Amino acid sequence: MNKKRNILVHTYNREIRKLVSKVCCLVFCMLSVAAYSQQIICHGTSSSVYKVDATENGGMGTSGSVYNWTIPNPNFSGIITFSNAPGTNEIKVDWRNTPAGTYTIQVQEKDAATGCLGPLQQLAVTLKNAPQPHLENTSTCVNPISGVLVNPVVLNPGIPATGHTFVWTLNNQPLSAITPIISVSQPGNYKVTVTDTTTGCEGVAMATISVSSAAVVQAIVKEAFDLNQVIVVSVQGSGDYEYQLNDGPFQDEPVFQVSQSGYYTVRVHDKKGCGDSPLRVLVLNYPRYFTPNGDSYHDYWNMKDLPNPEKASITIFDRYGKLIKQISPKEKGWDGTYNGYPLPSTDYWFVLHYYDEGVQKEFKAHFSMKR
User: Fold this and answer.
1) What is the rounded distance in angstroms from the CA atom of residue 237 to the CA atom of residue 217?
2) pLDDT band at residue 38, thresholds of 50, 70 and 90?
3) What is the pTM of this model?
């Protein structure tokens, strides 16, 4: 009898445990799952947050529960990430390029200890199309002195006026323009915010208008009459420039080395197409030797390409200071004789008087005669 009673008690206790388990599972499954979110969002939304059991366990959800989140629509092309740890009660959805439409976010809670599943909670999220304006960075030409744009720039985001509003800013400062297409005359950072008046969705486009210009050019020749001379070019303007000497290749450095006297053309080219600026540069030099031997090569000594040659004069001396000849740059030059007699091969000195930019200057040096 006692043995039979013990079996009944054991069976009774087992049934009680089953009943309690069923009741616990039933109570768990009847728990309310509260979700919150924007139920209508705009295409291009970078991320949205979704959460259940927001008031439990300090906002961390039901203790001991695991949450399974899904968006079963095959058109969904975004990424779901957990805000805290895998299986927690809060996610972030990056919608990325998911097309417009209605998507159902599903979440189901599971008790990790009992395996009981809560009801499948669903939230419909409508993804609305947002305007997609487009602007391109551009460079325009300005006057190198005044900085005023040569031609205005037209900004067109490609969105029709009907059904949209437009807000423009320049360097984060609002503009009065409210039209879809504007013409601007200032460089800077432009932004347009386009709002769909039906959905309230916004699209933003930005463009930077930079400026360039033809150059105002100056050049100096360092150390006139040196054997090797340097032309240094300086520019005024807002362009990106490259430099050319005569018909040579363009280069990025504004420095040229030359060894012969004469006029050179320096050309400064704006890489963004705002024009070329040529400048004529005079390099002063003199022959270091001459060979008056009648072969028609270097038979006369003179200094050519001087500025204002009609005002210049050259006086030649021997090494002892004796006056040998006075010549003009406009003449053929000295033939190496004195009073019709050939002079010996040696060094001879000269004094040059000339005018450069209205200023009278003097230069002294020597050269060699080789027979």
Assistant:
1) 9
2) low
3) 0.60
pLDDT band, residue 75 (cuts 50/70/90): very high
- Pairing verdict, β 289-290 and 359-369: parallel
226 contact partners, CB below 8 Å, separation of at least 6: 285
* Whether 114 contacts 26, CB under 8 Å: no
